Amino acid sequence: MTAKLHMTCNTLPLSLFIRCLVDEDLTALVIEGDADMQTLTNAWQAINQEWMDLCGNKQNNYLLVLALEIERMSFSQEVTVCAVDALRMCRFDDLVKVLHEQGYRFPFNPSNPEEYHNDLNRVLARSKRHLVDIQDKKQQYERLKGGGTGKKVDHQYFNQMLVILSKFIGYHIDEERTTVARYATVANMYYQHIEQLEKKSNGRQKDR
Description:
Elements: E1 4-5, H1 14-21, E2 30-32, H2 37-89, H3 93-101, H4 113-145, H5 155-169, H6 180-207
Antiparallel strand pairs: 1-2
Helix pairs in contact: 2-3, 2-4, 2-6
């Protein structure tokens, strides 16, 4: 009897895809009958290539955007801290301008030393909030990086992604009933949504 296999992401449930990818159990592709390893391997290669076409490039593009945003935010945070350290010793108009451009629009009036240093303390207090944002983005980057070709993914990666995407679309994604193609569609929508948010955030940064 000729084996009947899943040959496309449009029919393959996500749970079986995970078995193939994470557990390296290609028998998950069998719908009925028996198939030799070469047949299973050929089917898996076709599905894996389709998966990369559906989701891989968009995810890699988003990872690049996210990495650049982390770098930008980290540099901005470092500049802010260095400017505050220098301004504690002496007021420089250029450094005050830098802080104003970062969104810290305090007067920094040296004629009132107490208020001047309070302004600098306020800058540091506000900047610490950005450290939390940076850490969140770094954690998100590490989670999503597992979906690229450079690192073998595990069950934890898909567990985290399913929680993220379920929250994004507002209902639970059942890996048993959701096809790989459907999962990729939702993931791409999520990546595009985050990229749009990043662009808006960068636009606000430039307008400050």
